[in-house]
Amino acid sequence: MTATSTARPVEAGAADRVAVRSYKAPIAYGIFTLIALVLFVVLGRDGTSTFGLSTNADLVQLAPVSLPTRITGIVVTVLLAVIAVFAFTLARAARRIPLWLTVVFGVLFLVAFLTWASANQTIPVPGLLIGTVSLSAPLIFGALGGVLSERVGVVNVAIEGQLLAGAFVSAMVASITNQPLIGVLAAMVAGMLVSFVLAAFAIKYLVDQVIVGVVLNVLVTGLTSFLYAQVLVPNSQALNSPPRFPRIPIPLLSDIPILGPVLFRQTIIIYVMYVAVALVYFGLFHTRWGLRLRAVGEHPTAADTVGIKVAATRFWNVSLAGAIAGIGGAFFTLGSVGSFNKEMTAGAGFIALAAVIFGRWDPLRATLAALLFGFASNLQNVLGVIGSPVPSEFMLMLPYVVTIFAVAGLVGQVRGPAAAGKPYVKG
Amino acid sequence: MTDSQLPGPLAPGRPETLVAEPAPPGRGDDGQQRSRWDTALRDILGGSAMISVLAVLVALVVGAVLIAFTDERVQETAGYFFSRPSDMLSAVWDSVSGAYSALFQGSVYNFRRPGFANGIRPLMETLTFATPLIAAGLGVALAFRVGLFNIGARGQMLIAAACAGWVGFGLQLPPVIHLLVAVGAGILGGALWGGIVGLLKARTGAHEVIVTIMLNYVAFYLISYLLRTPGALQAPGSNNPKTPAMADTAVFPLLFGPQYSVHAGFLFVVVATVFIWYLLNRSSLGFRFRAVGENPSAARVAGIDVKNSYLYAMLLSGGLAGLAGASQVLGTVTTGFSAGIDAGIGFDAITVALLGRSKPWGVFAAGILFGAFKAGGFSMQAAEGVPIDIVVVVQSLIVLFIAAPPLVRAMFRLPTPGTGRTRARIGAGKAEVAK
User: Is residue B366 domain-resident?
Assistant: First the structure.
């Protein structure tokens, strides 16, 4: 992550440079350790939990792993307590708590939770992860669009609208042409059109960007719902039955145990997603385009002084962001569901927005945040099938509660691009 | 941890003004003196009232185009437009005028019903729909004025509905007291749910947009769980995720007799509007709120406790959303509610606050307008088969156009008001500051 931090010249101000004893993260660790103690030890369940590691179609079959439920819970809780104490000593010494520690803590907690929840049951690990990828895909596309747009200085609350417009148009165009790829292109155009309106109002008419974004979401929701009821429902055979993308396994790579079926036995849109994440990351931090983009988002006056056209840079990059979010919309109709439904994005755009802020406006971190959300919602699906001891509503709540904890405790005062949300008047 | 870090990029800049006006082109710079009448005419033509009227008009026209294009008769007759254009034109007229007159008759006055008392019933319906919209809109607007973007009115309403509902059907109290306790419980529930956001924002710097979005989902799932758990909110002896009906003592009395649906919740909302107007414009807390909203750093330098202002603002904002939730449960749907009790009002409240420019009486008017759209939309859907979603389109277009006066002026070639020499200078100065 060194490339990321060096590429961001103005880190979050004095708060980061001056050594501050922050006990937020250790306290968060402590709370989760207590939860683990109660859940896995006090309310511990007996039996063995099995993790299935292979699907039937795999070349290399891995034997399922079995863990004794209660012992695993106790061992992991002890480990969690050790990490929490270690974090407290780090905080006392005014040292930063490294990211890997949080990751290790999270993974351990998760393993213990899965073990606890699946006593005398089998959890299909590849199934859990495959579902994660497909639930995260629209979030990742939306988050990439959000990162690009906000890095160039235009707050993008309209991700939801871009996703929904993409979903609607791709379903219609793909049904008419019978070509899913043309549907994706149409979705990109649709997302771009939403972005055009956002950019025009934000840049030309200097309207508050959050307001335009919110209103655009409402507008697209109303428009697609109206057209869905008036046009798509009466002609659903001709206009709302798009062909879906087939799964294309990549030779060799798809035979890797666990990861193969998860990452390399997917549809084209998912492969496009890998490329998009890499391109946005590389472009943003290692090309002239990205430097200019970030300059306009951080300090438009300075960028203007050295001859960068602020308005044009903002306009075209916001449009690009819309196009990327549009692909995410196409995934709803052409990748997963197979037809357009009223308000089918169901708030995914807002979750993507949360992923942008959670990921601190960094494409890779935002992608990880989106994956976390996808994983949590899919975990609920899987546990619902095997019969979880926790009411399903609380499982559904989990990702949102975790996000609140993370934003309050771990991320803290996040700082976005300095000029995001501010119109630039040349003068 | 300086306060200058607090407003993230999502913090709305100055929502009550909606637009950072650019320097108007200095058209008066040629030294030409304009007569007073000329200036007055220009100010009226390009002024904000005119812009608002035109924005509504343009939005209605766009809605009409959508209605006409998706109408089946219009599509049929368009096939032979060049041989008999009158057919298509009359089909267009029929579809559009039918839809809009149904919208009007469903929201203001129904001419088909005999007598004034019956004809005015739709207007009362409008006020009923407007009641929670105004309350929640005031909450969002108040948060806007403090520089906070409260997307969480939905969650606050749900929690408030649960609290008010639980008091409403679970307790046995004397008539008036029961109602007041139930409303109070709702306001308290909403305030607490909003207060979480304010507390996290003030103490940890967590971004209020994320926290409110997340709390919306948490509230929804929490209510869903309570609604299907016997002994919590679920009606006894039922398997549906629905509460029992409210006790008669806890229900808002109808204001104008049983033939009109408007209930006493409307009075609460009027009082709330007056209260918020007083709070923002006449009280020292309101002054601190506005100072923080305009410029948190300057407010902090002036000795205002910015963090506590965020907390109080979110408590009040949540409380107002809570009033909306209580009015839904105790006034509109008194026969027991399910998890969809918020009916999208939490999000509509954002557009209401924007249309009202975050001013209390502006929000009141915007709430009534949107209430009219809602009441009319349902009867339009029933009478003409035009989906109610068209109302959402028209509403959002209105807000969009009102937010961009230069666009509306360009569309109708209206003059920019105050294009005199001195005004131009002031405008340029403002733009400089806005940067």
Answer: yes
Helices within A8-98 (DSSP H only): 14-17, 24-36, 69-92
Show residues of chain B in contact with A15, CB under 8 Å.
1-2, 5
User: Quick check: A39 and A116 in contact, CB under 8 A?
Assistant: yes
Domain carrying residue B381: 120-385
| Nearest in space to B349 (alpha carbons), one of B328, B335, B332 | B328
DSSP letter at A264?
S
The verdict on residue B221 lying in a domain is yes
Query: What amino acid occupies position A113?
Result: F
Determine, yes or no, domain membership for B182: yes
Relative to beta strand A122-124, strand A248-249 is unpaired
Query: Rounded to whole angstroms, how far apart are CA atoms B391 and B375?
Result: 10
Distance between CA A162 and CA A216 in Å, rounded? 9
- A286-341: per-residue pLDDT in tens? 999 999 999 999 998 999 999 999 999 999 999 999 999 999 999 988 887 788 88
Tokens of A150: 């906000």
A244-258, B178-192, B338-352, B401-415: range with highest mean pLDDT: B178-192
Residue B398 domain flag: no
Collect all residues with Cβ–Cβ distance below 8 Å to A262 and sequence separation of at least 6.
A126, A129, A130, A132, A133
Q: ipTM, 2 decimals?
A: 0.79
Kindly tell me the sign of the dihedral angle through the C-alpha atoms of B360, B366, B372, B375: negative
Q: Residue A13 pLDDT > 50, yes or no?
A: no
In sequence order, the 6+-apart residues with CB closer than 8 A to the CB of A62 are: A53, A54, A257, A258
Nearest to A210 among B12, B347, B391 (CB): B12
Flag if A219 and B2 touch (Cβ within 8 Å). no
Alpha carbon of A227: minimum distance to chain B alpha carbons (Å)? 8
Report how many domains make up chain B: 1
Domains, chain A? 18-120 (no CATH), 132-410 (1.10.3470)
What pLDDT was estimated at residue B28? Answer: 45
Banded model confidence at residue A411, pLDDT cuts 50, 70, 90: low
How far apart CA A404 and CA B219 sit, in angstroms, is: 13
Nearest to B146 by CA among B21, B274, B347, B306: B306
Using CA coordinates, name the residue in chain B closest to A149.
B9
What CATH number does residue B312 fall under? 1.10.3470
CA distance B235 to B427: 61
Q: Quick count: other Cβ atoms within 10 Å of Cβ A265?
A: 20
A144-161 exposure pattern, b = at least 16 Cβ within 10 A, e = fewer:
bbbbbbbbbbbbbbbbbb
* Residue whose structure tokens are 């699946």: A118
